[in-house]
Amino acid sequence: MKVEIYSSAKGIAKKLYGFLKSAWRFFENMRYEKISKQAEKMLPYYQDDISVKWLRAREKYYRDKDLTIFPKVERSFGENRKYEIEEVDADNLLLVYRDKNDLSVRYAREVIRMSSFGKKCRFISENEYRNGCGRQTSDKEAVIPVMSKENILDFLSVARDKGDWSCLLVPRYNMLLGTVGWQYFDMFPSDRDEVVVDAGVFDGKTENEIFRWGGANIKKIYAFEADPANFEQCRKYYAENNMVDKVEFIGKGLWDKKSVMRIGSGQSASDSSVGLTGNFTVEVTTLDGEVGDDKVTFIKMDIEGAELKALKGAKETIAKNKPRLAICIYHKPEDIYEIPEYILSVVPEYRFWIRHYTSNAWETVLYAKCL
Q1: What pLDDT band is residue 364 in, cutting at 50, 70 and 90?
Q2: Where do the domains of the chain lie, and which CATH numbers do they carry?
Q3: Taking Cα atoms as reference points, which of 14, 108, 97 lies closest to residue 67?
Q4: Labelling 353: which of 146, 181, 184, 316 has CA 20 to 30 A away?
Q5: Residue 303 in contact with residue 318, Cβ under 8 Å?
Q6: Please, are residues 340 and 352 in contact by the beta-carbon 8 Å criterion?
Q7: Where do the H-state alpha helices sit in 162-205?
Q8: Would you place residue 172 in the very low, low, confident or very high pLDDT band (cuts 50, 70, 90)?
Q9: Is the dihedral of CA 302, 305, 308, 309 positive or negative?
């Protein structure tokens, strides 16, 4: 009797799981269909074909969850990206996968195809690796796992037991990566008396790029950072690099109102996020309230999904000064249409460009300027 009840409950649970999974897919498809339709309405405001291609690449990525779209679009431009694997000191690369049909493997193949990597690259399964197949003992060879983070952790012990610890290379962020361009600063030249807002400074080093971009044209930088783990690091960096005279560091997050929130803190700029839960309580503020009547000329935002809220808190500054904008739009799917829509609602004269700076889904930037 107990076995029959258990089997019946298991069957019901399986059907319920299938129903919920189908319902989730249905609503996700509706969501991404709306995103695509709304994003397409913004097409007349984009100023070149490159922007349109990157917009549609993001639409396709959200719909299909296929990372290979980014290196494929990149290949159509013929851009010369810098790939991490090109800096590997080895005669051969051995890329080990757990499932050859896994997205990470298909993505890695696209990245290698795009790179100017002249060394020998070979893919083998984890089972082949465990059995000693594919290793080139006579050459200097690097072993690179191409699999999920969880599987990589398991693979590390295998590589250690096989004596490959010294030649094992784990890609940063667990995937092969290529970068191109000068993010935030390769679209617009600087003008005299630049007053720059840097929202999301992380470790403070973006200010180096701002001074490289603007040089003597830089009048002032408002530097915002919400993560308290980075406060002292930023202050120390500004002092050591003689930036304190022109950089006003504000240890707050940007939002659409003054409040107190919790944020999650991470080891990289892309690991921090603002929300209702997190590791630290932080003060958030509006850009309008912090800059007052200062004539802001350029706004850069990379604040992990808080960009739209921060733009709403900068409404008066944008309407009054019409600054050039460099706003990240890769943290939330809706950002690809909600952010340009909002900017146009404040100043209809804005026009847009999109550029993408990595071989994966990170670092897509919306540029805006009044024409």
Answers
A1: very high
A2: 82-179 (3.40.50), 194-328 (3.40.50.150)
A3: 108
A4: 316
A5: no
A6: yes
A7: none
A8: confident
A9: negative
Nearest to 95 by CA among 159, 156, 144: 144
Residue with tokens 């080093």, as numbered in its chain: 205
The C-alpha atoms of residue 337 and residue 316 are separated, in whole angstroms, by 21
Whether residue 63 contacts residue 39, with contact meaning beta carbons closer than 8 Å, is answered with: no
| pLDDT of 265 strictly over 70 | no
**Tokens at 360, concatenated:** 């994966």
Q: Which helix (H) or strand (E) holds 238?
A: helix 231-240
Cα–Cα–Cα angle for 168, 173, 175, rounded to 5 degrees: 65
Number of alpha carbons in the 13 Å side-chain half-sphere of residue 231: 11
**And the tokens for 44?**
């007349």
For β-strands 194-199 and 218-224, DSSP reports them as parallel
What CA–CA distance (Å, rounded) separates 237 from 356? Answer: 28
| Most confidently predicted of 110-124, 132-146, 277-291 | 277-291
Instruction: Quote the CA–CA distance of 235 and 164 in Å, as a whole number.
Output: 41
Of residues 337, 203, 311, 331, the one with CA closest to residue 256: 311
Can you give the pLDDT at residue 257? 94
Q: Which two tokens stand for residue 253?
A: 């997050």
* Rounded distance between C-alpha atoms, residue 264 and residue 166, angstroms: 34
How many CB atoms sit inside 10 A of residue 133's CB? 10
- Residue 344, exposed/middle/buried by CB under 10 A (0-12, 13-18, 19+)? middle
Model confidence at 75: pLDDT above 60: yes
